[in-house]
Design brief:
Layout (H helix, E strand, L loop, with lengths): L13 H4 L2 H22 L11 H30 L8
Length: 90
């Protein structure tokens, strides 16, 4: 839950938002939501084409694996750029 910073009172007070764990939670939440967004848009998982828990579960596992492979290539490239081995692509 994000803190409301406009001109009205927020449901989350400063005692919560000043903790470092609050920021960590936001980053983790973003990573999780990013994965679900990718599965809906790029992997076509917005509407399943299978019926039954076993088949849908298998498709979700396959989709999550594909997302991890995509993410892994980006992480390896970022690590290589950070170490000075590859030029950045912009």
């Amino acid at each position: 839950m994000a803190q409301n910073t406009s001109n009205r009172r927020s449901a989350i007070d400063d005692r919560t938002t000043h903790h470092s764990d609050y920021a960590v939670s936001g980053r983790v939440r973003k990573r999780v939501e990013e994965m679900f967004g990718w599965t809906k848009t790029a992997a076509g998982f917005r509407k399943t084409h299978h019926r039954g828990l076993a088949r849908v579960g298998w498709m979700f596992t396959l989709t999550a694996t594909a997302y991890n492979l995509v993410r892994l290539t980006k992480l390896v490239q970022a690590e290589a750029c950070h170490a000075g081995r590859l030029p950045r692509d912009g």
